[in-house]
Amino acid sequence: MERRTSVRSFAREPIDGRIIDQVIRSARVQHQSMWGTEGRRGGIGVHVAAYQVEGSAPGLYRLSDDGWSTRRSVQSVPPELLADLAARYADSPALLFICGERDGRGPGPSVSQYSELLVRCGSLGYSLWLEAVRLGLSGSVHGVTSPEVGDALRTEDKHVSHLFTLAIGLPTASTGTS
Length: 178
What we know:
By secondary structure, the protein is an alpha+beta fold. The protein has one domain: NADH Oxidase (3-Layer(aba) Sandwich). The protein has four helices and six strands; from the N terminus they run αβββαβαβαβ. It has helices at residues 17-35, 79-88, 111-134, 147-154, and strands at 43-50, 59-64, 67-73, 94-101, 138-142, 160-169. The protein has a six-stranded antiparallel sheet, sandwiched between helices.
């Protein structure tokens, strides 16, 4: 339990994108075992604001199911937004944005559909955090959404909503792994 402490301070060292892949893949397996396949309920996507990720320029990236190696840069993100997000959440090497994708039918999800989507995104966020800790990273979870992240992502997919955030990075000497 001691290692499962949310922290807001991270070592000033980059992390490897392959660790991000591992975190996401393992958490998705856990999530799918609990919730099943996404099906007609709308999907959940993970997007990454990379600040110090080896081999990547700072930016916001959309991930496919193949993970970090096939990431695509979200073009509509001004640099000042990235700086603001780091200040708003945590000055970490990476921020993982968990986003719900409704099916696109009708004007929007019903209250019950949105509630389920919100819970599913939180569940995936928590699984991502536990997996990051298991792999030796530190993390902090944030239930506060960013309308700016949602706006940037909706320039490419109008059905996406940012619902949960996880900051990850290597632990500082004073915090240990958490």
